[in-house]
Amino acid sequence: MQRIVVLAGGIGGARFLRGLQQAAPDADITVIGNTGDDIHLFGLKVCPDLDTVMYTLGGGIHEEQGWGRADETFTVKEELKAYGVGPEWFGLGDRDFATHIVRTQMMAAGYPLSAVTEALCQRWQPGVRLLPMTDDRVETHVLIKDPEGDGQKAVHFQEYWVRLRAAVEAHAVVPVGADQAKPAPGVLDAFAHADVIVFPPSNPVVSIGTILAVSGIREAIADAGVPVVGLSPIVGGTPVRGMADKLLSAIGVETSASAVARHYGSGLLDGWLVDTADAGAVPEVEAAGIRCRAVPLMMTDTDATARMAAEALTLAREVRA
Ligand code: GDP
Ligand code: CA
């Protein structure tokens, strides 16, 4: 059985995984999920990226939105607002709240996040093994221009992304705690036993970049001795959805399919898929020592996404040969 390990953020990672499951129905898939976006709200631990993967693969996702639960209601949020209790900018629905209550309760009882995630997945049966990148606390902070002065200040990633809609200038992105964090149980083993490692079209800075920042993970991938292939989250010079370009600028990387590949580098990546719109970037990526192909990379539906996943697996076989 083919063992595939995928590093994943939220929406981009989750949608890709659904296509991968269709393209490789017999594969054993392990997902290493980003937890740098995690935040405490109303006393509850919220893990947006893990939940997006779990809900998407488990059939509970709000399809159009890409995150949160289908058939959601917002009574708790309205009641909190009536008490004047915020923040209001982070939308948690009633169904979603239950997930965070269960998670927080289990963690208060002493279970690590990896065990809690496994327990939540018993309900959702995502068909993959979903592991948080670490059980330790890692929090992505963004250094922005202080709106009330000339200086800079660090804000939680969610505050920058959701409340400020990435509309303020970002100077740096810091995965606080990542260098002290240990990979969660099973993570290093998954790389060691993988047949192929895939970087889906997830955010290269705050999803894949954060996972790679956890101590030992980058090295484990580079040393795994198996093909590592990625799919560009940038198509035609723009992130297909979201504001990843703002974060790429903050870390000094151009918003292009080729620049993202070169940012990961040939020490990590063996193969890279760009969209057909970026076919012109292929020679540049190959000159950087990364095998590159141009194929359609728009996840318009599961069939199209499954074709992308199949192309990634084909490229992995090619770079191995
Ligand atoms: P998040 O945590 O919800 O932001 O999700 P991810 O980090 O997993 O993925 C977000 C990235 O997915 C965005 O930065 C987009 O560039 C990328 N993305 C979204 N839809 C598509 C698509 O259809 N095709 C490609 N190639 N990339 C996409
Ligand atoms: Ca995310």
Q: In terms of per-residue confidence, which ranges show pLDDT below 50 for 5 or more consecutive residues?
A: none
CATH structural architecture of one domain: 3-Layer(aba) Sandwich
Tell me the name of the CATH homologous superfamily of one domain: CofD-like domains
Query: What structural class do helix, strand and pairing data support?
Result: alpha/beta
| Helical run tally | 13
Description of the molecule:
With 321 residues, the protein is of the alpha/beta class. It has a domain at 3-40 and 128-135 and 179-320: CofD-like domains (Rossmann fold, 3-Layer(aba) Sandwich), CATH 3.40.50.10680. It has helices at 11-23, 48-58, 75-82, 94-108, 113-124, 157-163, 187-192, 208-213, 217-222, 244-250, 257-264, 282-287, 302-320, and strands spanning 3-8, 28-33, 39-41, 44-46, 129-132, 139-145, 152-156, 170-176, 196-199, 228-231, 234-235, 238-239, 271-274, 291-294. A seven-stranded parallel β-sheet has the order 5-2-1-9-10-13-14, sandwiched between helices. Helix 12 (282-287) links the parallel strand 13 and strand 14. The protein starts with a strand and ends with a helix. It binds guanosine-5'-diphosphate and calcium ion. The site of calcium ion has 7 residues, from helix 2.
